[in-house]
Amino acid sequence: MNITFKLFATLTDYLPAEVRRNNQMVMDVALGTTILQVIEPFGLPPKLVHLVLVNGKYIAPEDRGTHALIEGDVLAIWPPVAGG
After folding, report:
1. pTM
2. Topology (CATH level 3) of domain 2-73
């Protein structure tokens, strides 16, 4: 099944070079794949995986290992943001 995986801000550096400009990629994943299973191969430091949304809905850290993605889902991740 296909999902769209999006990384924002400094996290885009963890995407393959050919998709960094668009900050997203379509991925073919197995049915029942969880958010953490998608993230793991990219080597994202856990402290930088701050805001996680699936189809615009926030997924709490404790649910990321059990939240199974479905066909067409959009998984978007932002690092912590500092500002003033």
Report:
1. 0.93
2. Ubiquitin-like (UB roll) (3.10.20)
